[in-house]
Design a protein that fits this description.
Number of domains: 1
Shape: flat
Largest sheet: 2 strands, antiparallel
Mean pLDDT: 76
Structural class: mainly alpha
Order of helices and strands: HHHEEHEE
Low-confidence stretches: 132-146
Radius of gyration: 22 Å
Number of helices: 4
Distance between the termini: 63 Å
Helix content: 40-55%
Number of strands: 4
Length: 146
């Protein structure tokens, strides 16, 4: 008589694991829980930090799958403003950071070594703001490394 296949045991977390899950507070969870007590500036900073985290996670996800996807690794054949060869992942990360900050509504300009000029986001700039390309001292503000 054939034997029935054994059913896989259902995972039952231990009491210690349940306690850890319940008591574990991530940075995001903590900030979210405390957000109402923050000043408006601190809330903006928190939103920007969340955007950096999102962009980093999206970039890391793509990088973890890079070996499985065509045209993800390697060089583009271009040179950045520092004279280095541009990698495809550098360009991807740059595009992800631009998209993340563009959607934040909090950032007016972005700079990175992958762009010759700062990226201007007019819809995020306060009324009357001067584009940085018209201000000589702001031609290359502090860059966001990608």
């Amino acid at each position: 008589m054939p034997q029935e296949p054994m059913a896989s045991p259902i995972y039952q977390p231990s009491e210690q694991a349940r306690s850890l899950d319940r008591d574990c507070t991530t940075l995001s969870r903590h900030v979210f829980q405390q957000l109402q007590s923050f000043s408006a500036d601190a809330q903006d900073l928190s939103a920007l930090m969340s955007r950096i985290g999102l962009a980093a996670k999206l970039t890391a996800r793509r990088l973890s799958r890079a070996g499985l996807m065509e045209n993800t690794l390697g060089f583009t054949g271009e040179t950045n403003v520092q004279g280095e060869e541009v990698k495809r992942m550098d360009l991807y990360a740059n595009e992800v950071f631009i998209a993340a900050f563009q959607q934040s509504g909090l950032v007016c300009r972005l700079a990175s070594e992958e762009m010759e000029k700062p990226y201007y986001i007019p819809e995020n700039c306060p009324i009357g703001a001067i584009p940085c390309s018209t201000i000589p001292s702001m031609a290359h503000p502090t860059s966001i490394s990608t």
